[in-house]
Amino acid sequence: MFASLAVEHGIHRTRRARLRLVFSQLWAQTWQNVGVTDQTQATLGARLLAEGVGTAFLVAVVVGSGIMAQRLSPNDAGLQLLENAAATTGGLIALILALGPVSGAHFNPVVSLVTRLFGGLTNKELALYSIVQIVGGCVGAMIANIMFELDAVNWSTKDRSSGALWFSEMIATIGLVVVIFCIVRSGRASAVPYAVGVWIGGAYWFTSSTSFANPAVDFARSMSDTFAGIKPSSIPGFLIAQFVGGVIAFFLVKTLYPVAKEEN
Description:
By secondary structure, the chain is mainly alpha-helical. The chain has helices at residues 2-28, 44-72, 77-103, 109-117, 123-147, 163-185, 192-206, 215-221, 235-256. It has a single domain, classed as Glycerol uptake facilitator protein (Up-down Bundle).
């Protein structure tokens, strides 16, 4: 009996190892020049669809969980933030796992820009990725609003303009990009989904801006006058801080990992 259980356990371990290997190989296809093997990618159309759908779902998670948090915990801002951060962390990990093997699961124009700087995208692909990310994010905000019986578009009145908030966005974006690309270039791309989710979840709490770190999310969250919203006039400062943070992070990663390793 114990021998058969041991054999069965060994079979399950082998299957899990094979699944991890398959995922790592699929993920590697999307980061060919950034740090892994040169293999055939999904078609551009499929990659753009993945980026648009993924960003839409990401924003729906962020905005929708913010609305739900407000309604469940109307008198406790700390609990609202915890609920919003937990939902975002889980949703982000799931979306990257699901769509990473197709497009790289950037869901973020800054991540796409840094990928371009490393040679992983062409200028045309960068432009198309950024467009579908922004459009997808806006669709996601409308989906969240409609799910909670709000107008599809209700512009946020939440002002987020201050030097501290802009500095927070720069720091949050530097951290996000460093986490992604240091892990990829160290040959551990399959760990990115979990690392990114944990980073964003943590950055909700240690940054005064609650870590947007994503230009597509900036535009999308301006369309919902709820917990996660941002006033449209506050967006330019966030955009500048995020792109500056992305460029700083690129040079940090390039210095720390001048040569990329293949996935083990």
